[in-house]
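Quick sanity check, Sn-glycerol-3-phosphate ABC transporter ATP-binding protein UgpC:
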Amino acid sequence: MATSVVLQKVEKRYGSLDVIHGIDLTIDPGEFVVFVGPSGCGKSTLLRMIAGLEEITGGGLLLDNERMNEVAPAKRGIAMVFQSYALYPHMSVYKNLAFGLETAGYKKADIQPKVKRAAEILQIEKLLERKPKALSGGQRQRVAIGRAIVREPRIFLFDEPLSNLDAELRVQMRVEISRLHRQLGNTMIYVTHDQVEAMTMADKIVVLNSGRIEQVGAPLDLYNNPANRFVAGFIGSPK
Ligand code: ADP
Ligand code: MG
């Protein structure tokens, strides 16, 4: 069962700096939602608030209709994939995948099938004994995604996961992440400043600008009916 996400008038203030100004948004269970917008508009801040890595200073966050504002990150059932892979360099791929489960107290016998399944999904079964330095950029990014999969989260969050990869690999990983979504069926929220990624991957695009939503809609809706010049310019529609 996939999870719904609701933001109700969510605000964020860093000290005296207001960066998110009352965002209302509903994400349906199993949707692939892409947050797009220029650098500094608040995409990462929104993701971090959903993950519980950043305090929500106003409004409410609901997962499956349950208020999450005060729930610890580890108890939200969310896994996040970042742009920097942050793999442990001295550990094998297997260990990188298993480590989070070990520290969470899982038994070895329970960890092995979870790692095996994630490795199969990402087609990295043959790389399990390697160290990260013996992997290509794309393989490292797969391991980083694998670390999210082994935790069996209800929601996946991606913060510009492909921006360190070259153009060809970006296209390939885009296709793989879309396939992962179809295969797992989880709710996924994907942040990017790349319009092509947004247009090709999203069920629903959320266009952000200076901490506010400019428009929400399916890719073609935004392209054909941009609400304003900002959306038109950002999505690249002719208007
Ligand atoms: P994006 O991911 O869209 O580039 P961010 O969410 O990182 O945007 O940042 C939104 C705004 O909040 C920016 O003005 C940024 O400088 C500011 N900001 C982000 N993190 C912090 C922080 N920890 N402390 C103070 N200001 C921050
Ligand atoms: Mg960011």
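Posting the structure with no commentary besides this: The pocket of adenosine-5'-diphosphate (ligand 1) is lined by residues 14, 17, 19, 37, 39-45 (CB under 6 Å).
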